[in-house]
User: Fold these one by one.
Assistant:
Number 1:
Amino acid sequence: MKYSGGGFDIVNWGEGGGVDIPVPGDYDGDRRADLAVYQPTRALWAVRSLVTGAISSVTWGIAGTDDLPVVGDFDGDGTADRTIYRRSTAQWITKFSSGRPPIAITWGEAASRDYPIPAPDFDLNYLPYY
Ligand SMILES: [Ca+2]
Ligand SMILES: [Ca+2]
């Protein structure tokens, strides 16, 4: 990664092979983005702090499905919340960093070609990330 303040680092994080989905965000609330990948085959969010090197992992989503990871601070506590966009139902299912009970909100068209921005669709096949 190339830092906005200058310099760069190379850090290996993820399984490689193009399966992991990068989901950077501030998961520990130190106001700095952390390296994070979502592994669809395990519904696993693997996070690594660039500051401390601390590693954590959380399962959120259903493994082996087309659940898509979305990151945002939806409860406003300054820490990233893990959210799954379930394409079959158009549900946004959020696990809050603050410990509030998870919520599921339908927003989008179920079983359609809707997908959450910024999920990229590089080859325009309506399968984001792939
Ligand atoms: Ca952080
Ligand atoms: Ca939050």
Number 2:
Amino acid sequence: MGTEAEVIVVGSGPAGTAAVLDLVRAGHDVLWLDRLPGARPKPCAGGLTPKAAARLRADVSPVVRERTPVIRMSWRGYRASDFRGSDDVCLLTHRPELDDWHRGLACAAGAVITPVRRLLRLRQDTQGVSLTVLDERDTVCTWRARWLIAADGAHSPVRRLVLGQGAVPVAVALEGLLARDVCRRWPGMQFDFGEVAGGYGWLFPKGDHVNVGLYCWHPGVTLGQPQLLDYARRTLGSDALTDIQGYPIATHGDQLPLSAGRVLFAGDAAGLAEPLLGEGIYGALLSGQQAAAAVLNEDAASVYARQMARWRLELRHTRQITRLFYGTLPLAFGVLTHLLKSPLMEGAAAGLTLVQSKRRWLTAAAARASSPACSQTSGGRRD
Ligand SMILES: Cc1cc2nc3c(=O)[nH]c(=O)nc-3n(C[C@H](O)[C@H](O)[C@H](O)COP(=O)(O)OP(=O)(O)OC[C@H]3O[C@@H](n4cnc5c(N)ncnc54)[C@H](O)[C@@H]3O)c2cc1C
């Protein structure tokens, strides 16, 4: 048994769905594969920054449970400070609802998800890719296409088939859900840096529950359930968490190949989450859309590499910032609170990346320093 398509997309998370949606809307023939329905939902706190929301092809409001212009940040619960933007800095969604809504857009445009049990083999030649899978009826079948977009997450089975290794994830996050009626208090969105070494704890309120989690950007660290329960008890007065799940987040995309022959990697399969906070939905949407645009060209791999260059550079810069930030806590938290709070939140509210926010702040500071008014002020005069 076999079939053909122009493009095969593996994965229906943010990256795969973004790719399929653009391809199908442009009239292309796509074979879209994911695991059988009923697999556990992807662990994810569902926080959408304005830059991520802006990449979605429709207004995400129907699945936004809460939105907030302010995040309470602390160092291990001390020196808590409200970080406020002039507009929303995060839209809080429940990830299964976000995925259903996003896939619904692609399906409404004509896409169909074909469930598979297992990916078995991938072969390439100069004309295309052949992917052999075990389908939902336990039948082995082979599909062929000119290009394959691997958007199959941090463990990336496609990457294993093609390169012999997964995305070698370096960050990890562990989360659980706490029902509203057992919370001692109803929190705002909150980050507690230093809650775990090299990371932070988070509280994301979502109407009927709070998503409680721990993130660590260090390679090889294991986050334990007792740490998560203890954090929930201290912050919300209860450890009655349900749906506790951990998962790696692949954050080193600047060091990984973006493609191998006719296979383009997108989202976590390409390591495109940013390491400071583990935000991965933006990189997934961006790369899914860029991969979809690239496969319309015969030199898709080089087009894709060019289109993703800026984000991969951002990941490299952000990793340096991340190392510095977590390596110098709590001092770094003081600097963040006193010096960087406003530019970061204004940048986030305006849909900028971390590096763009930093650049905008430095440019404004340089302009202020070189303006005549400023020279006069530094000369002793106050206007
Ligand atoms: C606990 C936690 C909390 C997080 N919170 C946030 C957050 O609030 N905001 C944010 O921006 N990011 C967050 N992230 C990161 C974010 O979840 C990921 O970066 C993002 O989901 C990556 O999207 P993706 O489409 O690349 O991969 P995924 O979302 O992992 O999707 C991969 C898809 O591939 C499919 N697949 C996997 N294997 C196979 C196979 N063998 N055959 C067929 N299909 C397969 C899966 O079923 C899935 O549909 C969090 C991560 C974790 C672990």
Number 3:
Amino acid sequence: MSRHVVVTGASSGIGAACARAFAAHGDRLSLGARRRDRLTGLVEGACIAPLDVTSPTSIERFLAAATAAHGPIDVLVNNAGLARGVEKIAEGTGEAWREMLETNVIGLLEVTRRVLPTMMAQGRGHIVVIGSIAGHKAYPGGGVYCGSKRALQPICEAIRMETLGHGIRVTSVDPGMVETEFSVVRFRGDAERAAKVYQGTRPLQAADVAECVLFATTRPAHVNLDTIVVMPTDQASPHHVHRATT
Ligand SMILES: NC(=O)c1ccc[n+]([C@@H]2O[C@H](COP(=O)([O-])OP(=O)(O)OC[C@H]3O[C@@H](n4cnc5c(N)ncnc54)[C@H](OP(=O)(O)O)[C@@H]3O)[C@@H](O)[C@H]2O)c1
């Protein structure tokens, strides 16, 4: 049966790959991101609308457009997120911390809380969260980003408890290194520095993560995959990456 799948942050990387994977599966899509132009033509027949998860007004407009186009939401993929900078805590700035926490944590909560009540009333629904191995293991220069991803774990656990009996599934898909625009954003547009992150190694591709998301959401209704940790074969922890010597 065709489902209504909402993907936040669908203009790039993992979100865009999720949009393609769900579309190929035959689902109806609503896609949001700040760069609306990048959503155009991503998948045929999708509802596309601007979305800034740090703005409640933007979220409400986006969700209204989504439900007007495709009806009640079956799957919400909370993908919008970012890391900003690699400063140590002592050298960090409140601006970057707030951006990460407001996007990755508060933004996710603000979207999710508006979607859950209808899912509970309809007795089914799937909340997917794109976490990270950063939420499992901290690293120097990543304290706040790691904290924002770690925060998603108790949030997911609490939602499972609070919605128990309503047929709601909650899955966290937690990837290691994925080759997307993530590092360009983290290094504030420094593409050369971003490219070095992936140099000589074989990172995950966005489509690899999208496959995990699609898999989790296509299990039978009584099966909930709580957490999927997906790593490149060449990565054993945030700081253990195998690189081919040339
Ligand atoms: N790449 C990795 O190594 C990796 C590993 C583990 C987890 N993750 C997580 O995967 C998710 C997707 O990241 P990615 O790797 O695909 O990076 P990406 O290519 O930079 O994509 C990030 C997406 O998030 C959107 N976004 C950012 N801020 C937003 C906001 N305020 N409102 C709405 N959308 C917003 C961006 O769209 P606009 O800029 O157009 O708004 C973009 O579509 C993130 O949550 C990230 O933390 C990434």
Number 4:
Amino acid sequence: MAIRRLLRLCIFVFSVLSAAELQAAKFSRVVIDSGHGAQDNGARIGYIYEKHLALDVARRLERYLNAQGIRTVMTRTTDVFIPLEERSELANQTRDSILVSIHFNMVNYAGPKGVEAWFYNEEGRNLATFVQEEIVSSLRTANRGVKFARYKILRTCTRPAVLVEGGFISTKEDLKRCLDPKYREALAISIGNGLLRYRKS
Ligand SMILES: [Zn+2]
């Protein structure tokens, strides 16, 4: 009897420990991708390039996550060109990682504004939902929703992945916000908080 009780206790302790481990292991690293780079400027209005705004937000996100004890890997830290499949491959090769790709939007007609989060696989949808909710509630920006896309970087990524479009530089109101370092800092922090909430979920 005593042995059986001990065995049951062992099984109980083991299952509690492995459940805790599983939760903590949801991700231990964040691969942060700044959209575009070098000859690929991304969206552009005059001398304002999407690639620079994206790198700035990526750096802010890196600082924030590191301060929270989360390890990060950047796809680029300077103005260089990296093929999309190499960006997702970095996440695929990084154990227990998730991928966050940062972009800004542009269209050639007036009006659209706000933030959207794109995903490809089911876990990506889950991740994108947390990130989008956090951005919209803390930045009070227009919610353009969480959407499915077959973007190459998402399609070729085997890790949970989200692509954030942080505002329309083609719309005056959004452009003004995107040029404000305070907005970019708040955007980075809210993306980070979305990731942390996803981790706890
Ligand atoms: Zn882009």
